[in-house]
Design goal:
- This protein has 164 residues and is α+β, with helices and mostly antiparallel strands.
- It contains three helices and six strands, in the order ααββαββββ.
- Strand 4 and strand 5 form a beta hairpin.
- The chain is elongated.
């Protein structure tokens, strides 16, 4: 094996380790409950598209708002990710793994809601490291009472005044 091939293999292993670390830290961060701009920048690109059980959002600010809204439904959570298959192609990567999420509802009942499914992500290498540019969580099964998700707020356009 020549030096160039060793360097390619080392880069592939380093990329895989960095992506695995990012995904693991992301799931752990959901349980920590600190959702601020720094949190959003640490994991996502500015133009992230995320498809979640509580809706699809585009843009880091919209994702941050939706995660805050969704996670406020729970007193405590534990998110587990496993079996991630990572495909790297230069500056881009895709992943697919299993996700099991356990939630204690914040409604005062102490009820536990569990969901399991598949988490898919697209990542890009940035100057700050790998970041998630697109993600999809597809829930396959649930157990327990689901949280009562508030209906999305619709802002009506202001009506025009003046002659018609």
């Amino acid at each position: 094996m020549d030096i160039e091939e060793m360097q390619r293999q080392l880069q592939a292993l380093t990329d895989r380790a960095e992506i695995t670390d990012l995904l693991d830290r992301y799931l752990r961060s959901l349980d920590a409950g600190v959702f601020d701009e720094e949190w959003a920048r640490a994991f996502h690109t500015e133009d992230i598209t995320a498809e979640m059980p509580i809706g699809t959002v585009r843009g880091r600010a919209a994702l941050l708002a939706r995660v805050r809204q969704g996670m406020a439904l729970f007193d405590r959570t534990v998110h587990l990710g496993t079996n991630a298959v990572i495909e790297i192609d230069g500056e881009r990567a895709t992943t697919r793994g299993a996700q099991l999420s356990t939630h204690v509802l914040a409604d005062g009942t102490g009820s536990v809601f569990i969901s399991a499914g598949h988490a898919d992500a697209e990542l890009v290498r940035t100057a700050e490291g790998w970041r998630i540019s697109a993600s999809t969580l597809r829930v396959v099964w649930t157990q327990g009472p689901p949280p009562q998700v508030p209906a999305p707020t619709t802002v009506e356009p202001s009506s025009a005044t003046g002659p018609a």
